[in-house]
Amino acid sequence: MKKNSPKNWALGLIALAVATVIFVIPFAFIFLTASKGTEQASKLQFDLPKQWHFWTNLVDVFKANDYMIFRAFNNSIWLTVFSVSILVVLAALAAWIIDRRGGRFAKIANFFVLSGLIIPPAVVPTIFLLQSLGIYGSFPSMVLIEVAYGTSFTIMIFRAFISSIPRELDEAAVLDGVNSIQLFFRVIFPLLRSVMITAIILNSVFVFNDFVNPLYFLAGDGTETVQLTLYNFNSQYNTDYNLLFMDILVITVPMVIMFAIFNKRIVAGMTAGAVKG
Amino acid sequence: MKIRKSKLAIARLKQYPMWFTIPLGLIFVFLYLVPTVTAFYYSTQRWTLFDTSYVGLDNFSLFFKDPFLLGGIVHTFIYAFLTSGLKVVIGMFFGVVLMSNIKFRSLLRNLVFFPVLVSTIGVGITFQELMKPEVGILDQALHVFGIPQEGLLGNVTTAIYAIVAVDVWKGVGLATVIYIAGMAAIPQEYYEAAKVDGVSTWQNFRHIILPLLRPATNTVIILSLIGGLRSFDLIWAMTGGGPGFASDVLASLIYKKYQSGFYGLSTAGNVVMSLLILILVLPLSRYLTKREVEI
Q: Which of A199, A213, A177, A205 is closest to A274 using CA atoms?
């Protein structure tokens, strides 16, 4: 089973070639189109730019619609940071209590978690509820909605992991005289690091790339998220495909940076029983 | 003895105060549970400009009378079952390959996972252009096999399958990661015991890896089935339900009704979709968990 055997090299090269065709070509298309001049880009062909307009296109995307993309980034990044932070901390806490208490409480909680995973959210009643509270379209309400919609999935990920942490650990800490809050934040929380990273990455991807919910719940000016800028570009620059694809490129950058930082830990967090659901 | 035990149990429960779940519980109840329940009420209302009136089950009968509903349901099923089936098969294959001793392992894994990071709408727009008749390279590649003139997305029969393919392309990375995690959780002794018994690679896969991967498979099936049944944004970005209504699914039909201001009707549609998903997924998830093997 040597990693450098000729067989593993050959298989690796074949797999790399296949993966390149399937996964790299679409991104190459995005990048190349984003680097073209307006006229060449409108032909939508897969070829090299006759002239490279990468920087001018980038600047144009930033300038478009009165620097709208900056506002959108501002909105999307804060939306993601706030909702994911609230979500992972509270969900870890809830998952811990549900797992440790067990019994009827856990049964009821499980029922709600499962139904939250299965039943699609009812949009219109939510809008009316928010309107009657006078917070419809506001940024904080959007944050809370993303938290509510991510609750089930995140509790599910944490529970499987927490159940593998021995209870004796809790008990030893309690004998040392810590209270429940200290017990959670000093003893349990640090142990959750790997699953926490998985939860952060997956939830960030969901929230940052969420298109549907901001469409429903952020119906105001100045609250555009980056996903909605895509549509503004699409209609406003109907023929400017170079800018459209540059926009796709630009709004992917934050998730790529996050992935680059946490890359190796995604799987680690899902191991340890997490996939058992 | 009995009394002491229950005292101990109570003391233990005190360690885990229920109110710790209240902050998240409140958000979940108010923004998810309450709307889900009140949806039943709203689905019996009809909106005029300033007023609502009770119309009983009219919205439901109107929803069921939609001539495109049947097509929408069929497309929803095709979409959900095909994407989740393909993600299981391809995700497992990728997982097995990426857990072997193959070269370039981490590079390959990054390539497979990368589309998960990209916005669904961005992916939809990109493939829309790649499939564009005559110019898109995907369309040109398919021309070699003599496939439709009007392009994959413009063709009534192929549109939905083209979107399914893109959905799988985008989502298979997550399935692969779930499988890799599942495989990493299989204790090494199983492989070693199998090696001692001299089983072939295929037997090893069929009788050891496959059964032990069942929890991972169930997770992939359930997650992608739920995602597929309510899927909307990729379809919306690529075809908007078209050509005609050829790729409309339940979620897009419901959105169109919302868009036209038929709030009661769209809520009734949402209730129908929820019940449909419940009826389908709940028994399936029960059945699947029952078949899991304990490691």
A: A199
pLDDT value, residue B2: 47
Taking the CA of residue B156 and the nearest CA in chain A, the distance in Å comes to 23
Q: Which of B56, B78, B51 is nearest to B168 (CA)?
A: B78
Nearest to A53 by CA among A32, A30, A25: A32
CATH topology of domain A65-276: MetI-like fold (1.10.3720)
Task: Look at B36 and A144 and tell me if their CB atoms are within 8 Å.
Answer: no
CA distance B172 to chain A (A): 11
The answer, yes or no, to whether ipTM is higher than 0.85 is: yes
Q: Does B259 touch chain A (CB under 8 A)?
A: no
**CB within 8 Å: A120 and B111:** no
List of chain B residues with pLDDT < 70: 1-11, 48-50, 147-149, 293-295
B186: left (phi over 0), alpha (psi -120 to 50) or beta: beta
Residue B51 is classified by DSSP as: -
User: Residue A206: is its pLDDT beyond 90?
Assistant: yes
Structure tokens that stand for A219 in this block: 């119906």
**C-alpha A23: how far from its chain's center?**
20
Domain ranges of chain A: 65-276
Query: What is the predicted pLDDT for the residue at B199?
Result: 79
Q: Residue B1's pLDDT is what?
A: 44
Please tell me which of the candidates A98, A125, A263 has its beta carbon nearest to residue B35.
A125
CB contact under 8 A, B119 and A145: no
